[in-house]
Amino acid sequence: MTTTTLAVLVPLLPFLGAAAGLLLGRTAPGFVRPLAVLPTLAAAVLAVLVASRQGGGRPIDAATQLTPTGSVPIDLALHLDGFAVLVAVLVGLVATCVQVYSTAYLKDDARYPSYAALVSLFTSAMLLVVYSGDLMVLLVGWEIMGICSYFLVGHYWETPEARAASLKAFLVTKLGDVPFLIGLFALAADTGTFRITGILAAVNNGGLDHPTLIALLLLAGVAGKSAQFPLHTWLPDAMAGPTPVSALIHAATMVAAGIYFVARLLPVFAASAAALVVLAVMAAVTMIGSGLAALAQDDIKRVLAYSTIGQLGYMSGALAVGDRGAAVFHLLSHGAFKAVLFLSAGVVIHAAGTNSLAAMSRMSGLTKRIPDAFWTMTVALLALAAIPPFAGFFSKEAVLVAAEHTAFGDRDVAPAAAGWLVLVAGLTAAVLTAAYATRLWLLAFRGRGPEAADHGRQPAAMTSVLWVLAVPTIAFGLLTGVLVDWFDGHSLTPSLTTAVLSTGVGLVGGLVTYGAWRHTTAHAERPPVGAVAAHPDAEPALVEAEAITSHTAAYGTIAGAPDPSDPGRLLLGPLHRHAVTGFHLDALYTALFVRPTAAAAQLVRFLDREVVDTYVRGSGGIARGLGTLVRRAQTGNVQTYLGALLAGSLVLAIAAVVLANVYAGA
């Protein structure tokens, strides 16, 4: 079987699994779990085989015309380079682990068949984005992911948080997709093709007439899909969905799609220095802002959500300085350790019966209850904080090295200003990342108080995948020398300067947070106001839904908690109340966009009901009045009808005589 055929099967198998799961979900529920896991597992195996055959060598291209358009053709095309085949392996691995994990996490959920089918369809769409060589086909996968995320984030539709989060995720990402679509058409108009290879060839030959406009339009879609400032606000709220969905969407698939898209078309963006500076500013604000917000969150999954936003900021920063190898390297390592963090968080929430770090800090014994989650989460947090020798250290260093080279003029792909922005913001974010990672670990696993309820060991389906994903979290960074050919052939090894700087500031951030925690533990004897934990004797998905509802009921918000023992509150000081709300961006957008739009809708409603409908009702009233007058003449009396007929005839006769005399006299 050829490599091209194998590559076609990779996105096709999860799609077929999704279709079969939906068809058999009610009639043969026993087949739902195999249909969810096996096609995705087969796609992951085939993705590994495609990657080994591609081998980091020359890209493999294949295409057939999908439909004639009369102008720019649309092709069903594959473009398999080193980046594509490695990202596909990551997507297949994480999706398989999520499907296996979900069989236990939602074991008694009545909506599991539709959930599993949507996860498979989501996986198929992302693999289509990864392998596609035509931008219109890529757009199909891009939009399918968007609608799947709407349904998956809203899985707990009974809770108002999930309903609002799913709608917000859909609308915010669509807000970015509109200019993104315009940018795609503008790009095709300039280059004469939707094929990625044709676009890159045209750019190299100077065939791009409006590089800045096109790049900025495309960046709007990237900001929405990859949760970059200012369109990042949907991602923390999306934590209202099931934890496996968070691991899938926010680790290896949807949020990575925008980064991957820019990496694929980096020469388009590099053709405009202004666009790269805008991307660098966006990345810098995202990295620092998300790090501050993560340090203030009480919901364990919202901490990880803001962490995801910040790490995506690192990837955007690497692209802003023109190094797509560093960006994709960090995308791959982040996908592995962030999947571990989210899936471990699901185990922690189930064991503790709450998603509140404030409540967990008043519990003891979690490390003994869930040793698998404790150890794998510890490893993943070390990778997140970029502590050597874990994967996150090597990939984050690759980003900082690229920024350093650009800042000091060793690379001329991007302006030096972009390099300095990314370098300074990256080092600052390294301190914040280590701080919130340390805070999460201390509050979740070093709590003081009554022991957490013991409800037995977690299912093997939930714990085994943690160790599977822990392997690349530990070892992937050590493979940089082996995978050079897959990353444009240039080295991704750390430099001494940035390694010492970033590791040093990371250790400072962790130690300062530990000192703040030791200082505030005296307050931990007093439980936070209204702390409520769900009962941990139910299935994990039900516990999570109850935890979300109880957290909001107790604290009035899913984000924060009035906890005096929180070291983040001490470290942030007066900035804490702003950081916990995401610096009031939601309130700002509500004032600038939501309320004016709602007011305009009310005005349109008034005009429609009181003005337009008035004319409609008036015309109807006139017709009814005339009908009433005519109806009075219809008495049903034959004598009346004959009398009216004779009277009319007499009037006509008299009129005829009069007119004849008038004309005769004339």
From TrEMBL:
It is a multi-pass membrane protein. Keywords: Membrane, Transmembrane, Transmembrane helix. It is found in: Endomembrane system; Membrane. The keyword ATP-binding does not apply. GO terms for biological process: ATP synthesis coupled electron transport; electron transport coupled proton transport. Residues 132-403 form the NADH:quinone oxidoreductase/Mrp antiporter transmembrane domain. The chain crosses the membrane at residues 6-24, 31-51, 83-102, 114-131, 137-157, 178-201, 213-231, 243-263, 269-296, 303-321, 327-352, 373-394, 414-438, 465-484, 496-517, 641-664. Residues 68-115 form the NADH-Ubiquinone oxidoreductase (complex I) chain 5 N-terminal domain. Coiled coil: none annotated. Gene3D superfamilies: 1.20.5.2700. One of its GO terms (molecular function) is NADH dehydrogenase activity. GO terms for cellular component: endomembrane system; membrane. This is Proton-translocating NADH-quinone oxidoreductase, chain L. It comes from Streptomyces pratensis (strain ATCC 33331 / IAF-45CD). The lineage of its organism: Bacteria, Bacillati, Actinomycetota, Actinomycetes, Kitasatosporales.
